[in-house]
């Protein structure tokens, strides 16, 4: 599997709310790179291990391992961090009511919020960087070579600050982000590889936390986005919350138990809610059966019809953006040839029904496209775009993606209104030039406020940046003519330059992004690790492989002490013992690939044991045995959405 | 994060040093990408400044040039080429966006000729009564009264089907007037494109007036649509 010495490979990364994936182009087809546990999906969950005995900085774990810590030590775990990316303090306030995370107390207005995780504090881009570093390592392990360049996907409706935060995260993880690609567009690329060459397609992307709709025109390998719309805070999470709220309320009302006060229990109940939701996509009813701290049982049937009524308001929120996107593209639903479904939430039959109605599909004898796994299609498309950028492959050399900016760019004008300078759905890169002058004799500064959004008043739009044009030569009022050029690049990120035309002087611009980290801050947050020591890459691979082997061996050693061990059959126990004996021998060798294979074999052998452990943890948490460990008051609101259940099912 | 970009225009190709016409995106000798050329949007596509355009040919040329200049083609190139590819593609996209739309195209060409045309920034111009076309004064006055009435009714949560009907009819009427403007504009395009020097100033003046009228009508229709839809 490892193709050695292919330096300069560009990978495609889907940095998702719930799960993240890394993929690459294998010949002329994109494939997902599995993690060391063999799974394609890395849950977007980051946990802080306990402080090592004797002090020192605790280790950060990512993915499935981190997810397991969610029930036992919820105060040391963070998930769905994508919802916080590029957002200011006041914006995430509502969000935090739904999340069990706590802000660091010393965050000031205008600063990037920091989240408290155990005894440490992290900004959202730092958390994302840990996820990205894990994906980078998975890819490096797979290739047996360093990976330093990547394409990362973002929701099409992400604004400038959210995009910049994602790019910052890449840099912190030691990745040069060659391009940010919009998720629905990436999905279109993945489908477009082997589809008809001409036509208009719509991509409906309902993920864990975001919703996007994009309409594209395909022609001879050119993927030209016509329009895009969406909601960066709408997804499967919202559906989980509905089910969870019902369960919490009913448990409180019928059994007098207020589980909201116990984060571990809420997380465990959320897992049950997610399982119910997933089950309802294939079954006609789901069943809750949960043992409560007071010994009662909470039992409830949820017929699919009830579920569909419940989620209708959430799904309806996707209709408006779809209609707007169709109108912005200057089309009618009948003119859309194909609809592609992306994101785990599109497995819900009611979602498919809604899409069918919005695009008049069955009326035209059509069906939406679901051939590619909706959890993987975005990562696969990112790999296609990575291959286009690498420019070294026949299969993608005719392909080109022309994307658009999702939101209009404007400048605050007199009276607080917005003067729009780049309209939404303009193909990017796009630019606009504006002229400014002074209002007072001898004035040497002009302040400019740049906003993003569709509302008439600047106060209702998203503030992007404020900046001062300085060093204007003193002249009479109205005489200076300062030309300011706004340019949105291919990542959807804004750049500004200015020049005073009468004097020919380049005015200095001091730009203060409304939200975001400075270059220096990003530099200081680069994850310190041996990631940069590419010269001893082989040594590093060996160390990593041995570390992984040690981790799983230590867990297996502790296993017989667990009640779950008793539930295993004699054959299962013998298989575990054989696999761990073999790994113990091989790990002393010098071959990282052999160590990894043996680690994987042991992981496979212990899979059922791990499941039993997980079930036991959930039961314990609901019974309230871990409540002392996680004694936190979450207030009235439901807690956060998260990645408890991998959305892998057929 | 925002950054300052800067660009300079060399006279000779940066790569092969052979001098070239500065309205080209690529060096005609060595095919290397060049800094953004100084010409207008028509020149980007190698077109004469005319108002009747073959839109299919325009799209085809847009795709052909995009394949060559897009930043995706320069992801691993040097800093200069990357920056030029970005600036060139922005220019190409701006040019295509302007030229493919008949109104934007007309406005752009008239501005190139030095005509002054009201900016289409939202907020501005919308309520300026001095801009009401003289022949519409009375109707606009009535319409505004009705719109105000409608908004009040909506605020109070009242239904007024008669008023709604009357507004819908007004909307249809103004849409009809817009279509008439579009037709008149196209007539003027022919005059302009025929290229007779003597006829151009009058055509230009007529088009400026038509564009102003159209903008006014389009704002009215939008107001009615918003009020009815609210």
How many beta-strand runs of chain B?
0
Fold-level CATH name of the largest domain in chain B: Helix Hairpins
Give the biggest beta sheet of chain B.
none
Which two chains have the most extensive interface, and how many residues on each? A-B, 50 and 28 residues
CATH class designation of the domain at 10-184 and 378-399 in chain A? Alpha Beta
Average pLDDT metric of chain A: 83
Give the count of helical stretches of chain A. Answer: 17
Tell me the distance between the termini of chain A: 26 Å
Strand content of chain A: 15-25%
Indicate the radius of gyration of chain B in whole angstroms.
23 Å
Multimeric organization: heterodimer
Short description:
The complex is a heterodimer of chains A (650) and B (230). Chain A is α+β, with helices and mostly antiparallel strands and 650 residues long. Chain A has 17 helices and 27 strands.
Write out key terms for the chains shown.
heterodimer; A: 650 residues; alpha+beta; Nucleotidyltransferase, domain 5; Substrate Binding Domain Of DNAk, Chain A, domain 1; Substrate Binding Domain Of Dnak, Chain:A, Domain 2; 6-stranded mixed sheet; 5-stranded mixed sheet; 24% strand; disordered N terminus; disordered C terminus; B: 230 residues; mainly alpha; Helix Hairpins
Describe the structure.
With 650 residues, chain A is of the alpha+beta class. Chain A starts with 9 loop residues before the first strand and ends in a 27-residue tail after the last helix. The model of chain A is unreliable at 1-7, 530-535 and 625-650 (pLDDT under 50). Chain B has helices spanning 41-44, 55-69, 79-100, 102-112, 137-156, 161-194, 200-229. Chains A and B meet through helix 11, strand 19, strand 21, strand 22 and strand 25 of A and helix 2 and helix 3 of B.
List the topology elements:
The complex is a heterodimer of chains A (650) and B (230).
Chain A (H helix, E strand, L loop, with lengths): L9 E6 L3 E8 L2 E4 L9 E2 L1 E4 L11 E3 L1 H9 L4 E3 L13 H6 L3 E2 L11 E3 L2 E3 L1 H20 L5 E6 L5 H13 L3 E7 H10 L5 E9 L4 E9 L2 E10 L4 H20 L7 H17 L5 E7 L5 E7 H13 L2 H10 L9 E5 L6 H10 L18 H14 L9 E3 L6 E4 L5 E5 L7 E7 L9 E7 L9 E9 L11 E7 L5 E7 L7 E6 L5 H7 L11 H22 L4 H4 L3 H17 L5 H14 L1 H17 L27
Helix pairs in contact in A: 3-4, 5-11, 6-7, 6-8, 7-17, 13-16, 15-16
Chain B lengths: L40 H4 L10 H15 L9 H22 L1 H11 L24 H20 L4 H34 L5 H30 L1
